[in-house]
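Could you please consider the sequence and fold following this short note?
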Amino acid sequence: MQCSIRSVIGITLILASLPACTSTHIDQFRQAATSINKGESIVILGRRQNNNYDTDGKFVKCVGATVANGNDRIRVIPEQEFLDAMFPFFEPRTAPVRTAHLKQLMAVSEARQRLKDYGLGYIVWVDGTTRRSGQYGNINCSITPAGGGCFGFNSWQDDSRFEAEVWNLDTLESVGSISTDSNGQSYLPALLLPIPLIAQVEASACSGLGRQLKQFITGKGT
């Protein structure tokens, strides 16, 4: 019995050492030159469409934190603070979907003044999601008088695809976009206890998109 337990532990340690692989690809499309002045800020917003579709708020917050940190950091207005201050202009039913709508919004003196008070240089719209596919395997758990445990193996693939479109508030035009596609294979082996080996696809997509966004807005990504 002691030998059997040692064997199980040994196999479990080997499985735990397996890497959960993640790969990330980033594309950039620039339509105009960009730069940001000292004291200017940006806001990063998730696309929402009448509560039927909602970009993950945690991902948007993660991108904002990446942009707001480091030696090349940019001041980022928190999304919820901005939405509360700009109510009702950026609610799902009223938020500008295209730059033509932004021009219409800027014709409203109250909205224009609120945006000016924030010293905003750019609005960044983030759109996307993470999907799971290719799941296979099975894990069974049981309890017996002699003990219990879980045995089996699961695996699946996650794919995070997000795009950030950048609007210049001086020209009221889109200056370009950045897209990221991060995918990875996750594993869940179980020998007595499940050992999750999760591919951090959203974290990788957030890090890549945030770094590229800083370079783009400051003009270093030209």
